[in-house]
Amino acid sequence: MNNGFKLISALLRGKWLIDEAWANSHLLLVDALLEGKPVLLDDRYAGGVDEAPKTVLINVAGRTVVKTRSYTNFNDVPEGSISMISIAGPITKYGNCSLGSVDYADMINRANASPNISSILLKIDSPGGQVDGTATLADAIKNASKPVIAVIDDGMMASAAMWIGSAADEIYAMQKTDTAGSIGVYTTLADFTKSYEARGIVLHEIYSDRSPDKNKDHRDALKGKYEAVKDDLNFIADQFISVIKENRSGKLNLKHDNPFTGKMYVAEEAIKVGLIDGISTIEAVVDRLDELKNKQISNSNENMSGFKKISALKNIKAEQVLEEQLQEANAELQEEGINAVLISATAYEEYSKAGKESDDKTKDLTEKLAAANVRIKELENKPAEPVGGTPKDSKSEITTPETKDDFVTEYDLEIQALKGK
């Protein structure tokens, strides 16, 4: 129910990165949602529960591919597996017709963090979706440390889906009929005034004298003044274009055509303009992911080859590393502007032991001090008794300023001793 509300809210108020032809063809579904009619949004959940197995493994070109869902446990998959994530249908931030962009981002982050996953394959067939959440998902893809390839899964990669797919290392179409593009932004504005009037409802909007600009853009748009709304859309469009230029840097061919006006391209045209890298098969893409992973490992080894002194420590037992070798390795790190310092295992153990002993000593002294303070408080609140016992006739004992310092109780002595610790 909560997701249903979020979906309807997004439909009514959201800004969209979506293919308009696809959106218009689904207006009857939108009408049914707005009228509160029961709508089955995903037949995989017909019983209210996704009955798919927790972990589904398939073999593609000899590699283990994990059909990843939001609940997939990567601890249950073999090391070196490929995580395959399907993004299908319109994309909203929190989902309903399918998973939301925040769900997909979480899946990608978990796959990237799992030691059992070597790379990520995104299968995309989407007309785009809500602006909100799109950048978050694209950032998760772009920031992944493992290779990511996006494929158009016999369909389209339009608008928000293009933004998302462009964050991958490479993009391939699976069919010549696949389409990509629709780099643009638009929004819809529903005016329910006449609908309310037909039902006898008169809506009054009353604003504080101190809030003249609240909802002004919306109110102006209802009057046909779209300038402020367009400024907002233009800002988002500029961000969209900037992201595509950055993500497809060195691949775009703007001399062939300008893809930033909202056009859609069939696969071969999308290749020419540089929005995708080619037309391929799922088997070839899996091979390519392995190539990218191996290249990544090779580059990492090459980067480490510059650290000759550090590399020399490889396979040497900790207790056999000489102090001179550590000094040379640390000098090498400093030359590269790296402030981290290597120390021997023995030194580390000594530092750890010394730190523990220091902590134990501090704890012991703290406990003794606390006990002493408690005892002082007890003694200060207790009636004093003279040293040597209570005088036989207390009334005859007169303390003068001259003799006061000579009258000392055993509690005075104990307090002085405790305070002197």
TrEMBL record:
<dbReference type="Pfam" id="PF01343">
    <property type="entry name" value="Peptidase_S49"/>
</dbReference>
<dbReference type="GO" id="GO:0008233">
    <property type="term" value="F:peptidase activity"/>
</dbReference>
<feature type="compositionally biased region" description="Basic and acidic residues">
    <location>
        <begin position="392"/>
        <end position="406"/>
    </location>
</feature>
<keyword id="KW-0378">Hydrolase</keyword>
<dbReference type="InterPro" id="IPR029045">
    <property type="entry name" value="ClpP/crotonase-like_dom_sf"/>
</dbReference>
<protein>
    <submittedName>
        <fullName>ClpP class periplasmic serine protease</fullName>
    </submittedName>
</protein>
<dbReference type="GO" id="GO:0006508">
    <property type="term" value="P:proteolysis"/>
</dbReference>
<dbReference type="InterPro" id="IPR033855">
    <property type="entry name" value="Protein_C"/>
</dbReference>
<keyword id="KW-0645">Protease</keyword>
<feature type="region of interest" description="Disordered">
    <location>
        <begin position="376"/>
        <end position="406"/>
    </location>
</feature>
<feature type="domain" description="Peptidase S49">
    <location>
        <begin position="142"/>
        <end position="294"/>
    </location>
</feature>
<comment type="similarity">
    <text>Belongs to the peptidase S49 family.</text>
</comment>
<dbReference type="InterPro" id="IPR002142">
    <property type="entry name" value="Peptidase_S49"/>
</dbReference>
